[in-house]
Amino acid sequence: KDGSLSTKTPAPHITPVARQELWNIWNADPRVPTVASRHAWAVSRNVSPLRVDQWFCSRRSKAKKLGQPISSDTYELSLE
Predict the structure, then answer these.
(1) What is the largest CA-CA distance in the chain?
(2) Whole-number Å distance between alpha carbons of 67 and 55
(3) Is the pLDDT of residue 9 over 60?
(4) Cβ atoms of residues 60 and 70 within 8 Å
(5) In the chain, helix, strand, coil percent, each to 5?
(6) 18 backbone φψ class: left, alpha, beta (φ>0; ψ -120 to 50)
(7) Residue 9: phi, psi to the nearest 5?
(8) Which pLDDT does position 59 carry in this prediction?
(9) 3-state secondary structure of 74
(10) Tens of pLDDT, residues 26-61
(11) What is the DSSP letter of 13?
(12) pTM greater than 0.90
């Protein structure tokens, strides 16, 4: 290998644009989307699905620590 990343390899970190999009999603609906829809969202943005999972887990954990009510319902995250 030449050391360069393939265009199909997800970025190891969430890009600033994707991070802002995640914040917009969370602020509009502070629930955790289904695993399948989180992964599809990540792949559609060339971001690591694991990082997106961790991002939502962190949001849920911080909200719980702050005493904010978080629904246990899940939903399908739009790819739009």
Answers:
(1) 49
(2) 19
(3) yes
(4) yes
(5) 50, 0, 50
(6) alpha
(7) -80, 125
(8) 95
(9) coil
(10) 999 999 999 999 999 999 999 999 999 999 999 999
(11) S
(12) no
